[in-house]
Amino acid sequence: MKWNHKWSTLMLAAGAMLALGLAGCSSKGASDGGGSTGSKTLTVGFWKGDSPKESEARDTLFKNFTKDTGIKIKQKVYNDYNTQLMTDLVGGTAPDVFYVDSSLLPSLQTKGVLESLSSYMKKDKYDASDFYAPTYKAFTGDDGKQYGLPKDYSTMGLYYNADLLKKAGYTANDIPKTDTEFLAFLKKLKTKLPGVTPMTISPLLARQMFIMQSTGAKIITKSGKANLSDPKVVSALQPLIDADAKDKTVRTFKELGFGSAMDAFGSQKTVFSDEGAWQVSGLKTNFKDLNWGTTEFPTINGQKANMIFTVGWSMNAASKQKDDAWRFIKFVTSKKQSQQYSTTASVLPSRKSVAKAMGLTDNKEMAPFVAAANYATPWIAGVNLDTIQSRYENIIPSAFQGKVTLADALKQATDSANKDIAKQDE
């Protein structure tokens, strides 16, 4: 997702389009469909590439809204979502309502393109207490106002191979609940399971940010600069790095020769895998004979921690149909519609009552992911997150492999990211 880097370029491009009288056209690559003309038509934007189930669930949402209100929906589907939506926002042709990934909220809020929903919520006495707090707070701006409402989410979980645990003489009940005990447990597994890697991970900032910030540090300063080299960040991540570079009890899936974490885990080359809830359906489809389960991550420094990724519905600040736009957002995030969408799309609902109604809190495979929604860290960290993420992921594999110390790797990532940020600010 490359939102921030392209803003200035696209501002100029949009200006040229306006000068040529082309600003009223749809952005190249975006397709309009599913709507119709009339005095009551609301345009809703989203990205292309959802699963067939999600597309079906969204279409049902739209039909239900039209049936309930008489307001027709004009769909605007983007191929290159972030770039094309940005172009439309600059050119004045963006939808009235559109998807927003939580990681992009700071950039959009800074640009002033999102309408605050706070006054609408206050007027209608909208009760937001049913949302999992991390999903709701992910769309709260730094000014305290609400710029979106979450539609669904995913958290991370610890997948385990029950057969390999049994072979080593253990069961799921033996999996330690704390970070230090868990790392020691991996060493035992390495001894008892020759040729099997105890745990496989993905070397991504979105996977490690909650670990890096577990000591109270932040990977980004208040001014938006990279802070990866903070000694507290280094000390928090060091045990995981040592588990690969020194102990070889933790390896990245690429180190094992696989193209994805799911393939490494599904091929029974590892006992544990840290992945999102999205991997559940993949394992059931591609590795039907695998005997696996899920559990919450071990605590870090005595605290439960995890990552949460969420997408919400936001309103265009330039919309000429704000009341209808709010009516739509309120409708699609209601308990009834949220349950319909989540059930059909097979996604985790952002409302606690809906998760309970769907039986997710008692589902042995999904319960760990649902539990984590109460305390997880949202994937959001300022306007320069994409730059910092890129620099981290360029260098961190070398630290995992022991080719460079973690402190040096994070310093390189910090310096490189901040040089890029300085250029963007010029």
Task: Explain what this protein looks like in three dimensions.
The protein has 426 residues and is of the alpha/beta class. The chain has two domains: 22-154 and 310-378, Periplasmic binding protein-like II (D-Maltodextrin-Binding Protein, domain 2); 155-307 and 383-425, 3-Layer(aba) Sandwich (D-Maltodextrin-Binding Protein, domain 2). 44% of the residues lie in helices and 16% in strands. Helix 2 (52-69) links the parallel strand 2 (41-47) and strand 3. Helix 1 (7-19) crosses helix 3, helix 2 runs antiparallel to helix 14 and helix 17 packs antiparallel against helix 18. The longest helix has 20 residues, at 406-425. The protein is globular. The protein starts with 6 loop residues before the first helix and ends with a helix. Mean pLDDT is 91; it is low at 1-38.
Radius of gyration from CA coordinates:
23 Å
**Assembly level:** single chain
Report the CATH superfamily of the largest domain: Periplasmic binding protein-like II
Number of strands: 12
CATH domain topology of the largest domain: D-Maltodextrin-Binding Protein, domain 2
Whole-Å distance between the termini? 22 Å
Low-confidence stretches: 1-38
Discrete helix count: 18
- The CATH class designation of the largest domain is Alpha Beta
Structural class: alpha/beta
Question: Helical amount among residues, as a percent range?
Answer: 40-55%
User: What gross morphology would you assign?
Assistant: globular
Overall pLDDT confidence: 91
In total, the number of domains comes to 2
Task: Specify the CATH architecture of the largest domain.
Answer: 3-Layer(aba) Sandwich
Could you state the order of secondary-structure elements as H and E? HEEHEHEHHHEHHEHHEHEHEEHHEHHEHH
